[in-house]
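# nightly structure sweep
# worker-07 picked up a monomer target from the shared queue
# config: single-sequence mode, recycle default, output format = structure tokens
# input follows
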Amino acid sequence: MKKRIYIYELDCYKVASKEQIQRMRISPERYFNLEGLPSEELAEKLEEFIWERGKMLAPSSMASEVTYYNNIREFLIDRKIQSLDAREEEKIIRMLKGWMLERGYALSSKKYRPAYDKIGIESPGIVRHMKKILKFLEEEDDRDEQEKDIWTLKNFDFPIYGNPIKNTETINFTKIVQPDIREEVKKVIFMHLKYSPLGTIHSEIAAVKRFSKFLKRKYLDIQSLQDLERMHIEEYLIYLQTEAHDRKNYRSDLYALRRVIEDVGNLYERQYMSELFLSNDFPSTPRHVFKFYSDAEIKRLNEHIFKMDEQICRALIIHQLLGTRISDTLTLKTDCLSMRNNRYFIRIDQVKSVTYEKAISEELAQLIMKAIDYTKERYGETTYIFAKKDDPTRPYQYSMIQNQIMTMIRQEDIRDDNGEFLKFGTHIFRHCYGKKLTEMHVDDWMIAKLLGHTSIYSVHHYRKIGNKLMADETRAAREKMDMILLDIIEGWDDYEI
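# output follows
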């Protein structure tokens, strides 16, 4: 076994070009020190971890990890720790933090997040690195997936209804602190996972976690959902109104909790559990305030969007022209275009519901074809038009789009009509699209179709703002909406559709 592993020995350093190495300014003599560790077994495990990291990370990243690793080495020697067990992560991290305090290391640091204009609290690099080591050392768990406390979704042999633009790989039950409740919930979630979207699943787990935390504080004797009585639900409702401040309205949270509790009752044949909640327990539906950009705000934002990466720019302009949900835009397929009767049609495979088609202008079709060509040139044949850079089998992730736009708004000092930083949400574009259609005398059913709704329920929100009579001018309305944004594009110098 080696006692030192130098940066220049790692795979990532060997495959790096001379230009890359010069640019990184890394001393090849930096090394990971394996000497003096309390046991040979521990040294072998850490050596394996370092070599594996060296295959995945850039040399500059490995160089930055040397300091964290060598600090952890000192901790292990000082505390005479001969082995690391991932199952004891909480205990090990607590010991590490105690050692850090003794050495004068900070237990947290502040980090400015420009995308949100906020200062966040971040765990120190030493702690984050220790968690990576423990994750690497996890013993392979050969139990059935539903028996574990953290589920890896790819290990299930049935389809999972996830959103491709959100990176969800696991479902974590560990924050449900009562073991019996955790097992009851896992059984129910396993059933729900076969037919419910992942968004719904995560809402249910979040609701149970919040309830579990409440029970731990107020009712330590409750260890199973089957032990619940009406009084516990009433106390929880009071708690949400008086002490909990995580969100403004807990209506959806309570519905999710009720679904889980009732299905636990059905599973264990405890019919009384369906009567724990009453219809008047749920707060009234919060009134949605739809936000819209003025024409001046849209133009102001788009002028800067054009300065971004060209494919991201195309995605955002196409998103505005289509009036779709962001998930439907980012998951557009490379075969989505067709032509009938000299008109272009686009197929939209909605993540949330159905597949539908709608006619689009030739200009918009050309823009989409340009985006398809861009992707094919770089990644070959792909499923999605907007392919993720480091994994072209997947579409752009919403978090990437959001962070880049919000960072740009701060950096470019983009203001709304009131002089405040422009608020950004991709759904605002969709609301703008809906509002414009109502102002252009389009009937409810056609608005619903153009927006990809299966009913006219949501249209009245747009109508309240448009406040005009409707008529059957669908094609003219659609093309007028297209021209609003195409006019902006034409104002961009040297832009090629």
